Amino acid sequence: MWTLGACAGELRIRRKSEARRGLICTADGGKGAAPVEAEDGAGDHEGDQHPSALGSSPQRPPEGGKGSRSSTRRLCAGAPRPPAHSRDRAATGAGSRAPPRRLYAGAVRTSCAFVGGRLHSVPVRLSDLAGLTTMAAVRALVASRLAAVSAFASLSPGSRTPSQRAALHRSAPRPGARVALVLSGCGVFDGTEIHEASAILVHLSRGGAEVQIFAPDIAQMHVIDHTKGQPSEGESRNVLTESARIARGKITDLAKLSAANHDAAIFPGGFGAAKNLSTFAVDGKDCKVNEDVERVLREFHQAGKPVGLCCIAPILAAKVLRGVEVTVGHEQEEGGKWPYAGTAEAIKALGAKHCVKGVTISFLAGGPSPLPSGLCRVIFFLNSAHEAHVDQKNKVVTTPAFMCETALHHIHDGIGAMVRKVLELSGK
């Protein structure tokens, strides 16, 4: 009979002694079709059976007599169930051998392969085996099921170089993009929007990036009491000191940031971008940008390295990089959903191009869809994508974030789209 297995990344197809039991896999799968018997251990690494792949415990019965060998499974390609008395005889035969479990044409048998020290299982339906009369045909069937696994190139872990093996293990050290995160304080009304900074750090971590956090060593424009939304009279704070709260103390003066040492830079939003990194909150289109912020933006741009900005921060790029394409969301308030929509006009006045983007793409908005409603709903489900605008020429990536009044998870995922694009443009 044919037994399918994959051990240490190599598919093994073995022909067992058919004459011993008179079993053969027939093509018709009809009433007279004989069962195909496969070992429980097929598909496992010797000594390292994987219970989830086999659907049973990997432990073997105690040795002794004919019943000591591992129980077999009968995989029937269309064969009828045996009569009850034959099953009873199997249960009370020599060595009290347990009755074999029968699976029919719709059942799934799992073939396994070890890649990078992990067990990967591939389902093969018994009905797929009907009509396969040669080893080559069986090999071709299982090889097609292992296509996703074999995409890793060689299945044998020993044949990989250390760098190739590391790519298979997320916990293994691997080179990632070196990203500079530039903060503007701590708190939405007078510094960095904390949720945005946190979301950026989460997505950079998930992307395997090495992050270094910077902030200018300057005084804040003013201090806002966030419980009242009003300035705190007679109080002053330092941008670098406040930003260290988000950075958990690991922060560097922005004056020391050099594009030569990093692959990308990202600026989260918050009013600090318009109050501390620039004077946009006071001067609008006639604003000035902090000299270190301007230097950093120009350095990364000239080096062809990507810059990401979210929320109100795109106004920094609009001021410094003439003709750049950015987004801060929509250009109309739309009943309060986009309360800072007027920023788009200021961006245009700065000589930049504003591109209307939402936090999420909605295929069901904007009138009737030309697609059938069911299909439209499926597409919406698959493409509930979170938007980021990419200026390919200038390698500037922007997303609206909290310029829109929407759910926090949409903000988080929209920032994730921006981070992914930045990492893609960095080439890391």
Features:
18 strands, alpha/beta, 428 residues, 16 helices
Fold and architecture overview:
Helix 13 packs parallel to helix 14 (343-349). The chain is an alpha/beta fold. Strand 1 and strand 2 (10-15) form a beta hairpin. Helix content is 29%, strand content 18%. The longest helix has 19 residues, at 408-426. The chain has 16 helices and 18 strands. The chain has helices spanning 18-21, 51-54, 84-92, 126-129, 135-145, 147-150, 162-167, 194-206, 239-246, 272-275, 280-283, 291-302, 314-320, 343-349, 373-382, 408-426; strands at residues 2-7, 10-15, 36-39, 72-75, 101-103, 108-115, 118-125, 178-182, 210-215, 224-225, 230-231, 252-253, 264-267, 307-310, 325-326, 353-354, 389-391, 396-399. The chain is elongated and about 90 Å long. The strands form six sheets. The chain has a seven-stranded mixed sheet with strand order 12-9-8-13-14-18-17. Strands 3-4-5 form a three-stranded mixed sheet, with no helix packed on it. Strands 1-2 form a two-stranded antiparallel sheet.
Structural class: alpha/beta
Give the helix proportion (percent range): 25-40%
Gross morphology: elongated
Strand runs, count: 18
Portion of residues in beta strands equals 15-25%
Strand line-up in the sheet with most strands:
12-9-8-13-14-18-17
Average predicted confidence as pLDDT? 73
- In whole angstroms, the N-to-C terminal distance is 49 Å
Major beta sheet summary: 7 strands, mixed
Number of helices: 16
Instruction: Catalogue the unreliable spans.
Output: 1-79, 101-109, 152-160, 162-172, 362-385
Tell me the Rg in angstroms.
31 Å
